[in-house]
Amino acid sequence: MALQISYLLSLLLLALLLPYSTTAQNSSNQYQGSSLTAQEKGPYWASPLGHFAFGFQHIENGGFLLAIWFNKIPENTIVWSANGDNLAPAGSKVELTKGGQLELKDPTGIEIWTSELGGLGADYAALLDTGNFVLVSQDGSLLWQSFNHPTNTMLPTQTLRLGSKLVAHYSERNYSNGRFQFQLATNGLLVLQTLAYPIDWVNTDYWSSGTINNGSQLVFNESGPIYLTTTNGSILMTLSSKSFSKQDYYQRAVLEYDGVLIHYVYPKSSTNRLMASTWSISFIMPPNICKITENIGSGACGFNSYCELGGDGRPNCKCPTGYTLIDPKDVMKGCRQDFLPQSCYEASSETDQFALSEMESVNWPFTDYGHYGGGVTEDWCRKACLGDCFCALAVFGGGHCWMKKFPLSNGFRDQSYAGTKVLIKIRKDNSTSNPSDADLKKKNHSTVRLILSVLLSSSMFLNLLFLLAAFLLAFRFKYWKPKACNPYLVMPGMNLRSHTYEELTEATNGFREELGRGAFAKVYKGVLEYEDRKPVAVKRMNDLVKDCDMEFKAMNDLVKDCDMEFKAEASAIGSTNHRNLVKLLGYCNEGQHRLLVYEFMSNGSLASFLFGGSRPYWYRRIQVALETARGLFYLHEECSTQIIHCDIKPQNILLDDSFTAKISDFGLAKLLKVDQTRTTTGIRGTKGYVAPEWFRNVPVTIKVDVYSFGILLLELICCRKSFEAEAKDEDQMILADWVYDCYKDRKLKLLVDNDVEATNDMKRVEKYVMIAIWCIQEDPSLRPTMKKVVQMMEGSAEVSIPPGPSSFISSM
């Protein structure tokens, strides 16, 4: 009896200690130091009842995906993944570190993914029987959960809040982000949208709930219904109304790679499974995915293809006559012509080489470049298309002729087009070249025999042999010898390659294509032959003979010798490892030549992105701000050698293929010794971003970077430069002053005027403005650390009211 009472008291105590979201069920906790390794049929962490598993899934012909999946059905259906854009190699490890961070690293220790808790640390991790993976602090607070970071799937009991979204995978077995998203926008509108792949820019809404300013959250009830609620919890609209017993069925709602949102169910018991041995569809949206029409984009399928709705509501992407799939394994890439297109120089003379193949009930609505009405005939329409080199196909019906250009977009089959006829232009011989292959071979053989007979019958043959031998010797000397002799040197302790000056001169084509320049260096685009022609950015320091290069001399006051100083700086920057820092790949330190080789950032600098012709998307701007803050937090507090960047500005924030922000240009950086918190040095940085203490001849700290970040954050919020001499209103010339005036007068909407997304997100605008004002305080001690900035931006720390204008000053 005493044992029973003790057991009941233990259960009661556990229920009181754990938060509601975790006490609904027991879980197998994984404490700090627990880890899993990526390997075939490797171990995993299971939920208490074994319905879900967390671990690695091997992706065919690829690496390993850190994922959550249904663990009691043969399909092992994945419902969440962490690294779809960057698969992990075998031997990678996910670990709940001693610092309480969940980190995925490859076998060399390079970070692939992290839960990004900032300065917070989890005491343990647990996979719940809802499929939700959670990180919990020592006091029971929920720090992170996979339900708040969905990929393409929702599960029962999960909710989508304002601004949350599901992003479709690229394909059925490619888990990187694809071409569609399902979003509960911040204005309360529930939408299905096409994306401008490979970036997440929205092209077109192809389904909408029509609940603008009313929707609050999307709820997936544990019994099956999926519905949108208002702020007071009342149901605004229902997407899926069917109910299923949670004891008898698994459920999931998935935004499939082809843009269809589907509610699936799967029987748990083996008896019911005999009737349905796979996932069955309970609900599908939209009813006809093929009817996506967008002015920019290809529609439901790729360019030059057309969409035909399948019996399961999914799109079938097909090619018209004369076209074939670019990639049969990726039908959404579209189709290509199987023939040479018509020449615009000889269009009239080539007319007899082309024919028009007929198709019915198909159309490509948004590729018209010509429309002819007034009772034209089909024969006239045919001749007009055949004689026009721009015409890929013509649509005729009701006395009208529509000419359509290449590439064709938004194609779909529908019976509403039954009264029209599609005339597709194809080459009659249906080949990719005018002469036949047999004729070409015959002609080539005859030409070769004629040349050989002439050469062998004259002394020219010997001369050609000598010339060929000389050419081969020169080629071998120039290209083969350096490759054979290059020892692929690596700087000790890191993966930094030592390049010769000749090698980098060749890689940059003689330093021809300049990407940018500064006071001490120029940056050139290059291609590394040894890395499968990988594009790189080569930073060439100004060559100095008498003295050390000023930039490297300024970087490290701890080492006096020029050669040692250069390697010390390269070692410090090269040893950094963070997704928001530009990666240093190699270096050259040869005589007076000093060069650094960085990864190439295809989307250029934040300056060109932010101050270009069009206003960047609000949510992309705030993402850049958060990523920059995380990079600085790493430099200040997580790096083995603490680094003060000293020159944070839009020109030094670069954007990669997916517009991820990465801090670059450590030319003015200061490296601090262990236990050193401040340093003395001359003024560094760029006007408009320089902290006031630089002008006071006092030791500087990491807070100078905080100040620069504050100015950068204001520029990202307002989408304008920190100083505009030609501003219409003199009060708006200095951005920091104007922002504070707007904040004080409660007129923050003036800062984001004509920015619809930002105007609909004014709570975040106000919070970020307050954070920026804290960052640009004149007194460095009042400025938060970058760790605190990250926490405030992520919402894990409160943002208090910043001091008044007497406490801060502009650096202009």
Question: Short summary of the structure?
Answer:
The chain is α+β, with helices and mostly antiparallel strands and 812 residues long. α12 runs antiparallel to α15 (762-775).
How would you characterize this protein structure?
By secondary structure, the protein is of the alpha+beta class. The chain has 16 helices and 46 strands. The protein folds into 5 domains: 25-149, Agglutinin, subunit A, CATH 2.90.10.10; 150-287, Bulb-type lectin domain (Agglutinin, subunit A); 316-427, Hepatocyte Growth Factor (3-Layer(bba) Sandwich); 473-600, Phosphorylase Kinase, domain 1; 606-812, Transferase(Phosphotransferase) domain 1 (Transferase(Phosphotransferase), domain 1, Orthogonal Bundle), CATH 1.10.510.10. Helix 11 runs antiparallel to helix 12, helix 12 (703-718) runs antiparallel to helix 15 and helix 13 (735-744) packs across helix 15. The N and C termini lie far apart (78 Å). Residues 1-27, 432-448, 450-459, 477-493, 544-562, 672-685 and 805-812 have low confidence and may be disordered.
Give the arrangement of secondary structure elements.
Elements: H1 2-17, H2 20-23, E1 29-31, E2 35-37, E3 44-46, E4 52-58, E5 64-70, E6 78-81, E7 93-96, E8 102-105, E9 111-114, E10 124-127, E11 133-136, E12 142-145, E13 153-154, E14 159-161, E15 165-169, E16 177-184, E17 190-195, E18 202-208, E19 217-220, E20 226-229, E21 235-240, E22 249-255, E23 261-267, H3 270-273, E24 280-285, E25 306-309, E26 315-318, E27 323-325, E28 335-337, E29 354-360, E30 362-363, E31 368-372, H4 378-386, E32 393-397, E33 400-404, E34 411-413, E35 421-427, H5 437-456, H6 460-485, E36 489-490, E37 497-498, H7 501-507, E38 514-517, E39 521-528, E40 534-541, H8 550-555, H9 562-574, E41 584-590, E42 593-599, H10 606-610, H11 618-638, E43 643-644, E44 653-655, E45 661-663, E46 670-671, H12 703-718, H13 735-744, H14 756-759, H15 762-775, H16 786-794
Parallel strand pairs: 25-34, 37-41
Antiparallel strand pairs: 1-10, 2-7, 3-4, 4-5, 5-6, 7-8, 8-9, 10-11, 11-12, 13-22, 14-19, 15-16, 16-17, 17-18, 19-20, 20-21, 22-23, 23-24, 25-26, 27-28, 29-35, 30-34, 31-33, 32-33, 32-35, 36-37, 38-39, 39-40, 40-42, 41-42, 43-46, 44-45
Helix pairs in contact: 11-12, 11-16, 12-15, 13-15
